[in-house]
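Bumping with the actual sequence this time:
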Amino acid sequence: MTVPSLLPQQDARTGRDRLEVLTALINAPSFDPLFRPDLVKIPLNHPVYRWNCLAADCERGTMGHCELCSTHEMLWREHRGRGGSRAEFLRTAPPVGPGEGVEQRICQICPERPARHLTLGLCHYHEYRWYHHRDRYGDDADFDAWLVDQHTLPGFGDCRVRVCTELADSPLGLCYRHERRYRKQGSPGGASRPSQWGNRYGRRGLVAPVSYEDEHAFHLWCAAAPAVFRPAQVNLRGLSPLLRAEIQWSMFTHTQRPHGRWELITWQGLASFAREHGLRSLTETGPEEERLLQKAVSRQAVQIVRAVVGWLQPLYVTPDETRELGYILTEHFGRKITGRSVHMDLTGVSQRWLRDLIWDHLVGNLRSPSCPRSGRTFDDMRRAGLELSTFLELRAPAGGHDPQTLTAEHMHQFVADQRQRERDGLASLAARGLHGKPSIVTANTRTAVFHRTRRLLRRALESGEAERLGLDRAFITAMPAPGRAIVRSRPPFSDGVARALANEANLRRLAQTYDPFDRGLRDAWETIIVTGRRCGEVLQLRLDCLGRYGGLPMLWHDQTKVGNYDQALRIPERVHQLLETRQHKTLALFEARNNRPPTAEERARMALFPTNIRNRDGRRPLTYKWFHKGFKLWIDDLEIGRWVPHQARHSLATSLLRAGATLTHVRRYLGHVSERMAEHYVHLTQSDLEDVLQHVWVAGPGTAKPGELLTETPTPLTREQAQSLAIDLSRRSTPAEGGFCTFQPVVDGGACPWNLDCHNCDKFVLSGADLLYWRRKREQWRLLAEGAPDDATADYLHRYFEPTARAIDGLEKALAGLGLLDDALALDLRKPQDYFHRVWSTAFRAADLADAGTEEESEYSDTCTTDNDSEQDIA
């Protein structure tokens, strides 16, 4: 897609308006004055447009896209061949003297003449006089004493080339480089100097005459000759005012955005190309100009032009003009949709009324405070518009361009067509996938089209826009509801897959084969496994994300998906050491690229996993696309099936729930917005669910505070609290009818002194797995009270059951607060044989709870004994 063709055609008035806008921006206080002159001179070691060699104290220009001058590049190759590192070479690189061509230097004797010998600093005339003096006196020649005796000669004025800013080197009126270029191009106009003009005229202070075969041709050549290249400057003379302002503004804007390396030689080549072809603005570059520009300058010049035109569009066009042209610029509304261009093309929707509805709808989303961060909403609406537009173009009268001719029957036909394509797996009418291939209609894409089309048209109906357009209400209401979309939750890693993904040999292969430049693929994957963070959260970690607080290693990260920033996470010591090593590698990479350590400000913005592409300052992290590519190749190599990195998050959530964590804990640990979202990450069997619910206890009806939560604490447990709680759960309880008995003699196998009157005993507690049992008990008592012969009997039954009712209400509140109420109600009633199930014969160990996070494993055994009363002693 060529962006410039979407801009309005430029006329004289448009050009003046654009120039006024850019002039105001260039004259603003925030604009760097370095880029305001016609001759933009970049100082040494500029953070963005660095042109000098990276070696310390070297003022020579770099060689091509290399960061070293030609001499230091050869020295570096020799150093690398001996096994040395780049950082070591940059620290110890020897100086190689002044460079050539950085800028024109003046003769230290004649202030109006350029120096030809850069080391001596002498013009052409005094250079030969020194050589003659040295040859005459040999070793006795003193350069400083010789300088005192020399006299100043007049200069030849400025170079006659219109865009050149240097001094002329001879009576011809051209600087040394332009004179050499003039001779190389065949001396147009035949300008020449007298033979031996230096001795005949220069010595005596006379001006040597210049003869021409065609003086007009010579002046034409001077007017058209391009500026000479200087590695530290960009010459913008001779350009149209608008084009010059565009380059000045874009050079500064490039320094304010995440950027790659744009060479000054490319900017100069672009300016020379525009001057040669008479371009008035960069927006005039079409496909043919881009082809010539790539051939004359480089491919990077074409990339610069396209990027700059994209930056200029929000300045040159208004939102109303983009509505007329059929596209949206998100920068008009201060938005940048993740992973999407700032340009949204709607020209594929041929019906103007439909395109305007879509434009207004999407712009409303962009202006909304709750604008979506991802591009899914915008992609789905655009797809829905393309599908409906193409269908109306084929089936509706006059291609659907007149909305008043559309009826409910047209919408019914569109719905039937979409459903048929979904059923038969046919291609979409208009949507295209990767590489321009037709997109196949699936249940999800059809649902998205129905949902977005219905929402678009109904909003037009509510706002009155449909009435203004004359759109039939029946056409709008004929679009049915999309129905439920198919959502499949990814399963956690199976045991075999988990072992393969954590195998040391496989992890070494991941790092060596699929990350040969050690960008951090393995480190990021191991961090994802252990912490359960999203891939994006790990890849976007900042350099200073680690810290110790009270001796505990912590990881600081941003959960941008849910809007939680600077979240702290406790991590194992091994992960802390792993990321600490990655920090040292990232800092070493920065020093190798810049030959200095980062400043405190630069360090605060650096990524822990920086990409190697256009990232000199280390701010840009690795992309998920790069991570997923290496991970997928690794998975395919292991031959364990199709798995994605995000399933590590599912595995961790399921393991947490099996270990006794509640959905609230899982939600808070994984950073979900709701417990409903956390449910998508847990995969439990029925026995797993019972294992979780049996850890939720409330006081029984015989206690002083029926329904009080016993096993859930709002604050983290200390080591002593965790041990005592584990003992209460696993060693001082035995199953009873509808709950657990915590009386120690009964647990140890002794007889119950209260004749098993559990429900009136203060040693009896209710568990989450018994909620359905107690709900049915409550229904039974309510039925008994309703069938009582008189009110007094009914009141007695209600009062008698009141402590039990309070205990049940407390249990329901506890389970609802933990997000487990629906799961608890889904369990069947306990049966006597359930007491022999492993759920009731096992409980979590004190060592596991107190030493959570360690990698030590311990063996344990369960001993189950059952008497005639179905009492069970948990060993």
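The tokens above came from a reply further down the thread. The first helix runs from residue 12 to 26.
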